Amino acid sequence: MNCISFVDCLQSNLITFENASTYSKISNGYHGLKWTNAYVLDTEIYPQWSESGFYSAVKSGTWVAFNMNGDRMTIAIDTPNKFSIKSFVVSSAWNDRVTLSMVSQRASTYYKEASFKIEKNRSTTIELNWLDINTITFYASIKNSQHGEVFVMDDLCLDSNTLSTSTSTSTSVETIDKCSLNEALYQTHCYYLDGVGGECRYGYSLGSETILSLIADSFIGLNYKTAISGNCCVITSEKYSNYGVNSVDQCNKQGPFTAVPSLNGGGCRNHTTEHPRQLTFCMSN
Length: 285
Prior knowledge:
CATH superfamily of the largest domain: Protein of unknown function DUF4465
Number of helices: 2
C-alpha cells in the first residue's frame, strides 16, 4: 500500500463530506453519484466517540462518512458515465484487526478487487487509482465473524465526468425545533423511541410499523427519549412486534443510535411478550 499527498487531488475532486445534514443518509446525486448505505456525521457533535475510528479517520474538517450497521457500502454511476477512484482515508469504527475489502466493476463487468487491514485508533490512506469504473462496493469484516464491521471514511479523492459541485443531501424527515429533543418530525407528527414498555408520554400514542419503516433512518444520531430499552423488539400500534434492532453494539445500550429498527431485526417476528422497558415507538397526537 502506498500513501499519497492530497495536494495531488484536485480540490474539486476531493470529497470531504462537510456540511451535510446531521447524521443523515447520503442521497443519490451527491457529487453526481449514486450512494447505497452511505451515511455522514459531524464528529464534533459526538465527543463521547473520541476514542473511536470516527475521530481517527478525520482529515478534513469534522465530517466523515460511514456504512450503517456494518452492511456493504456502494458508490456507483449510471453508464455510460464513469468515475476513477484515486484514494481515501479510512479507519475501523469500533474494532481493530478489521479487513476492508473493495470490489469494482467497469461497464457492469468485474474489474478489480483489493483488501487492506484497518484499525480503530489509526487511520490508513488507501491508494487505489482504479480508472473508469462504474461501481465500487466496500465491505469490512473480522476474520471468522459472520457480521460486517462499520468503517469510517474521509477525504475521498475521485474523478468523474459528471462530477457535481453540489454537496447537499435531502431527507423527508426533519429533527428541527418543531419537535422536542430526540424526536423526529414527519409530516405533522413528532416521533420518538423509548424504553418504556408501550407507555407513551401524555399527548402521544403508539405509532404504526408502516410509519416506522418510512422514518427509521431519521433516528440515527438521536437517543432514547427517557430510558434505555430492556428489549429491542419495538412496540407499535400493531398487535405483534415485527421490527427490532439487530445490532449487538446498540441494542439495549446508551445512544445516540448508530443502528435503527428494521423488519424482523433482532429476530423480532410476531413478537407478543412485553418487557417493562421494551423499546417503544410513539407519535404525537
